[in-house]
Amino acid sequence: MPIWKIYKHDSDADSKLVGEMPGNMSQSEVAEVMKRLVCRQLSEEEIVTSSLRHGTKLRKPFLDSIGQETELHFGENPYFRASLED
């Protein structure tokens, strides 16, 4: 059965497995967990500006998803990547 594996990537090109989640979790459920991981790395102001509506001048993209159905990326340096693996 596939599982979601979540990795943290730092600027030094190392990746670290930070957790695994059941493969039957939806992409949106995994994305919510990843956003929480990213928020741990952000300042309070960055969390607020990342939560503004798209198109707002002061909005930051820290909590925006980059990826497809079987792989998600969130954050900048560090960033988190989740992939659905067998």
Span of the ends, CA to CA: 6 Å
- Number of helices, where a helix is a run of at least 4 consecutive DSSP H or I residues: 2
Q: Describe the biggest sheet? A: 5 strands, antiparallel
What is the general shape? globular
Count up the domains: 1
Output the structural class: alpha+beta
List unreliable stretches of 5+ residues. Answer: none
Average of per-residue pLDDT values: 92
Sequence of secondary-structure elements: EEHHEEE
What's the total count of β strands? 5
Estimated share of beta-strand residues:
25-35%
**Rounded to an integer, what's the Rg over CA atoms?**
13 Å
Strand order of the largest sheet: 2-1-5-4-3
Q: What is the percent of helical residues?
A: 10-25%
Provide keyphrases for this structure:
34% strand; 5 strands; alpha+beta; 5-stranded antiparallel sheet; single chain; 86 residues
Descriptive notes:
With about 90 residues, the chain is α+β, with helices and mostly antiparallel strands. The protein has one domain (about 5-85). About 25% of the residues lie in helices and about 35% in strands. The protein contains 2 helices and 5 strands. It has a 5-stranded antiparallel sheet with strand order 2-1-5-4-3, covered by helices on one side. A hairpin with a 5-residue loop joins strand 1 and strand 2. The chain is globular, with a radius of gyration of 13 Å.
Quick description:
With 86 residues, the protein is of the alpha+beta class.
